Amino acid sequence: MTERPAEGPFDVTEVDFGDGVERLDLGALRVTATDGIDVQVQVDENTGTIVQLTFAKGDGAVQVQPYAAPRSGGLWDTVRSEIKSSINQGGGLVEEVQGTFGTELRAQVRADGSPNLQPARFTGIEGPRWFLRAVFLGAATAPGATTAALESMVRTLVVVRGGEAMPVGAPIPLRLPAADDPDAGPESSTTLPSPFARGPEITETR
């Protein structure tokens, strides 16, 4: 299991919610409001579940999703192998390197049937019975101010796994705040124009 960065993201048990920091409650994630970074969501209108959560800054973005993971860790090793295989089969390019959050994949991928390759960084962070996948896109795939800001945004995330039993690899549900939540903010949800129709799938691993 890769050691999680001490500067975050954090498990809910590691955070003092009386610290005065404004956080948006999205169910499985608590998101810290950050100037200059837009929080964009794509929502299933039937269930109210967020199917895609993206943080965007200029021409860079990062898509995040928390998953249930085994107590022993190691899910990122399995997922990384599946992503590499998927990218190779799709005619893309991928290499494994050491990055900000540990071992990551830097790739050139074909998106939405386009013949052109687009850059992407696949990262994975493992916590207590959870795994957070963060896919960096556009300007966030290269060193610079955009990448630094979006990486910092990921570090501020608080993961709320919950105590219920879940299959390994199952997405931990993300939901919009309740309408009467004083921290919900204006009712505005956007569908992100993304190079991925969906992120690489995580299959159940026991």
Q: Could you characterize the architecture of this molecule?
A:
- The chain has 206 residues and is mainly β.
- It is 13% helix and 34% strand.
- The chain has two helices and eleven strands.
- It has helices spanning 75-89, 145-155; strands at 10-11, 23-25, 29-32, 38-43, 50-57, 60-68, 93-99, 102-110, 117-127, 130-138, 158-159.
- The protein has a seven-stranded antiparallel β-sheet with strand order 4-5-6-10-9-8-7, with helices on both faces. The chain has a four-stranded mixed β-sheet with strand order 1-11-3-2, with no helix packed on it.
- β5 and β6 form a beta hairpin.
- The radius of gyration is 16 Å and the shape is globular.
- The two termini are 15 Å apart.
- The relative contact order is 0.26.
How would you summarize this macromolecular structure in one to three sentences?
With 206 residues, the chain is mostly beta strands. The protein has helices spanning 75-89, 145-155, and strands spanning 10-11, 23-25, 29-32, 38-43, 50-57, 60-68, 93-99, 102-110, 117-127, 130-138, 158-159. The longest helix is centred in the middle third of the chain and has 15 residues, at 75-89.
Poorly predicted runs: 181-206
Mean pLDDT: 84
Strand residue percentage: 25-35%
What global shape is seen?
A: globular
Name the helicity range. Answer: 10-25%
Largest sheet: 7 strands, antiparallel
Number of helices: 2
Can you count the beta strands? 11
Order of secondary-structure elements: EEEEEEHEEEEHE
Distance between the termini: 15 Å
Q: Strand sequence of the main sheet, in spatial order?
A: 4-5-6-10-9-8-7
Cα-based radius of gyration, to the nearest Å: 16 Å
- Class per helix and strand makeup: mainly beta
Quaternary organisation: single chain
